[in-house]
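Structure in, sequence out. Go:
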């Protein structure tokens, strides 16, 4: 039966290549012993999974999969542009979305003596884990300037990181905001999780530091060197929420 254009042998080769790529990865990116243990378990499980897929896929089936590389566009968006895109969408993980946006805005305002903001609309968020076990969050939201005659809304991006040790403390927030920035005055880029990105620059291993491969295309990011997390171009580690 033919479902597409990739043969059994090609699919087997791809699964084995992914297994071998994983086997070559080390725990140098893990900053704690717990992260190293989590990475080792993750690596062993997925290597075994890819090798099993390579051995057991029925030869009479050809997967419908077109791996043509593409890319997300460079965009210049206002807060209103982004809000319009989410007007008729029902956001998932609403509690997470609002929580991330509120944490990010509180962090931003705490570091400003002026030019503070009030939250206008929490738009979209993503929470994902790297292969080493570190968990990050990315979020887009809009905000209105406080105490000003200029009511222009701003579009913002924020990145957060989970501190696992703090989850045991009842009165401590375990998600720490790492960075908040406006992105309506700079080019922004959607995530690449749904595509195979065409990458022309030199990478460090499988890491593409130009884009986020963990987030969907509707979540907008600044240039890749402005944030951490989500740069693994294999996308395989990212079980997003």
């Amino acid at each position: 039966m033919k479902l597409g254009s990739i043969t059994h042998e090609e699919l087997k080769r791809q699964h084995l290549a992914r297994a071998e790529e994983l086997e070559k990865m080390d725990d140098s990116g893990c900053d704690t012993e717990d992260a190293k243990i989590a990475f080792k378990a993750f690596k062993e499980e997925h290597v075994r999974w890819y090798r099993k897929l390579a051995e057991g896929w029925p030869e009479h089936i050809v997967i419908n999969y077109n791996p043509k590389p593409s890319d997300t566009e460079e965009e210049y968006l206002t807060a209103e542009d982004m809000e319009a895109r989410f007007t008729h969408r029902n956001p998932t993980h609403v509690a997470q979305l609002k929580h991330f946006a509120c944490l990010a805005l509180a962090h931003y305002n705490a570091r400003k003596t002026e030019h503070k903001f009030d939250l206008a609309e929490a738009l979209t968020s993503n929470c994902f884990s790297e292969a080493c076990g570190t968990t990050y969050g990315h979020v887009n939201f809009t905000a209105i300037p406080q105490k000003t005659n200029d009511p222009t809304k701003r579009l913002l991006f924020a990145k957060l990181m989970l501190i696992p040790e703090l989850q045991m403390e009842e009165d401590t927030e375990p998600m720490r905001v790492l960075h908040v920035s406006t992105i309506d005055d700079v080019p922004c880029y959607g995530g690449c999780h749904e595509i195979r990105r065409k990458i022309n620059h030199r990478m460090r291993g499988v890491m593409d530091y130009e884009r986020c491969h963990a987030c969907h295309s509707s979540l907008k990011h600044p240039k890749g060197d402005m944030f951490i997390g989500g740069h693994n171009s294999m996308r395989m580690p990212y079980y997003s929420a």
